[in-house]
Each structure stands twice: as structure tokens, then as C-alpha cells.
Design goal:
It contains seven helices and four strands.
Length: about 270
């Protein structure tokens, strides 16, 4: 039996240090909700988690782009619904202006309304969405995934001659009214084609929205498996480490008291 070197106390202290370190780590994980509280916990896992988090951020950005593009298309269609109503009314006025019982003054009144509707349509062609023209006919490339791939959203051109010819017609004469009927029919046909393109744009964008939502959920789940702490499991580990610290502290106290038994040999 020796006094200067208490092997039992040294072993107990080493075990207590390990238990204390494990208990501290459990406390950090439970308080932060993260499985990785420092790079040393899981270096490879941390690297993968960082990559997943970065990709997830790009997915959210792409999702915002697609959402904005959808709003853009919906705004276009909202305007074109009103343009359709205007052209339909212009077509009716052109037919009414062909009535042989109508006087020149009557046709002049029809022309006033016809011109007002044409002016409205021309004004719509200058409208914009957040500073981006709605109807200049340009194709817009919408970013649809975290890799930067794009979807070409077909543009709508309200300055198309099918539209401008109809809005510029004169129905103050029967021959002019006859021409206006044909022109407004062509404009409505073009409008139907344009609205179909907008519908196709919106449908495609909805697919991309669903795709990005699914990708976001899967990336979040994968990252959670790496980075998020399992509270139930970690709570069990915490309880075990807490008991070990308490018992280790008690055993260290006992080990430190062992050399006192040497005094009995000296008495």
C-alpha cells in the first residue's frame, strides 16, 4: 500500500472526466437541438450537412422565382380576360354599325365607344409587373431548379398587328364596320392563342413548383438525419451520463479516502 500514488483515485478521476465530457456533450446537443455541436463531433457529416443546407437554400430561391413567374402569368391572364371582353364588345359594335336603319350620327356614337375600348386595349399593352413588361412579347427564362436550369416562358405581344389593326378600325361607315368585324374576329382568335400559351406556362410552372417542394422536403429530411438530434435517444444518453458522473464523483471520494487506512498501520 502506497501513499504518494493513489492509482484507484487516478482511475476514478479519469472515468469521471470521460463521463463529465459525455454529459456536457449531451447537454449541448439537447439545448441546441443539433447532433453536431462542433466539427469534431462528425467532420464528414458536417461537410455533407453544409452541402445539403446550401442546396436547400438554392431550392428555396428557385421556388421563389417560379412563384413570382406564376404570379406574372396570372396577372397577364387577368388583363387578357378584360381585353377579351373589350374585343367582344367591339365586335358587337361593328355588327350594330352595319344596321341600315342607323344614321351617320348613330355610327359616330358607336365609333366613340369603339375607340374608347381600343384605347383601353392599347393601354393594357404598356402594363408591367414589378417593372417588367407584361406584353412586349419577350420570352422570359425562369430558373426552375438549384442547378440554374430554366424554363422558357412564352411571351405575349399585345402590339401584334392582329390587335393593333382591330383597335384602329373605323366603324362610321358600313364598309368600315364590315372590315372591323373581320379584324376583331382575328384579334379574338389571336387572343385565344395567347391565353392558351399563358395557360401552358402556368401549367408547366405548377409542375416545377411541385417538383421543388418535393426536393425541398427530401433535402430537409436528409439533412435532419445528419444534423438534428434525436431527443428521445439523447435524453436516455444524458440520464446515463448523469448517473455515471454522480457515481464517479462518489467513487472518487472513496478512492481519495483509501490512503487514510495507512494510518492504522502507523498507530
Amino acid at each position: 500500500m502506497v501513499i504518494n500514488t493513489n492509482i484507484s483515485a487516478l482511475n476514478a478521476a479519469a472515468q469521471l472526466m470521460q463521463s463529465s465530457s459525455a454529459l456536457s456533450q449531451s447537454l449541448q446537443r439537447l439545448s441546441s437541438g443539433s447532433q453536431i455541436t462542433s466539427p469534431a463531433d462528425d467532420p464528414a457529416g458536417l461537410a455533407v450537412s453544409m452541402q445539403l443546407t446550401s442546396e436547400l437554400g438554392r431550392v428555396h430561391a428557385a421556388s421563389n422565382n417560379v412563384s413570382d413567374a406564376t404570379s406574372f402569368s396570372q396577372t397577364q391572364d387577368g388583363y387578357l380576360q378584360q381585353v377579351n371582353t373589350a374585343f367582344s364588345r367591339m365586335s358587337e359594335l361593328a355588327v350594330e354599325a352595319q344596321d341600315v336603319t342607323k344614321t351617320t350620327n348613330d355610327r359616330a356614337l358607336y365609333q366613340q365607344e369603339f375607340t374608347a375600348l381600343g384605347t383601353y386595349i392599347n393601354n393594357v399593352s404598356t402594363q408591367s409587373f414589378n417593372g417588367v413588361s407584361l406584353f412586349d412579347g419577350q420570352t422570359l427564362n425562369v430558373t426552375t431548379d438549384p442547378n440554374g436550369d430554366t424554363f422558357a416562358m412564352v411571351g405575349i405581344n399585345l402590339s401584334n398587328t392582329s390587335y393593333t389593326t382591330a383597335t384602329g378600325d373605323d366603324i362610321t361607315t358600313i364598309s368600315g364596320a364590315q372590315k372591323a368585324v373581320l379584324d376583331t374576329e382575328k384579334a379574338i382568335d389571336q387572343l385565344a392563342s395567347d391565353r392558351a400559351n399563358i395557360g401552358a406556362n402556368e401549367e408547366s410552372l405548377s409542375y416545377y413548383t411541385n417538383q421543388l417542394s418535393s426536393l425541398s422536403n427530401n433535402l430537409s429530411a436528409a439533412n435532419s438525419q445528419i444534423a438534428d438530434v434525436d431527443v428521445a435517444t439523447e435524453s436516455t444518453t444524458y440520464a446515463k451520463d448523469n448517473i455515471l458522473v454522480q457515481s464517479g464523483t462518489a467513487m472518487l471520494a472513496q478512492a481519495n479516502s483509501l490512503p487514510q487506512s495507512v494510518l492504522k498501520l502507523l498507530s
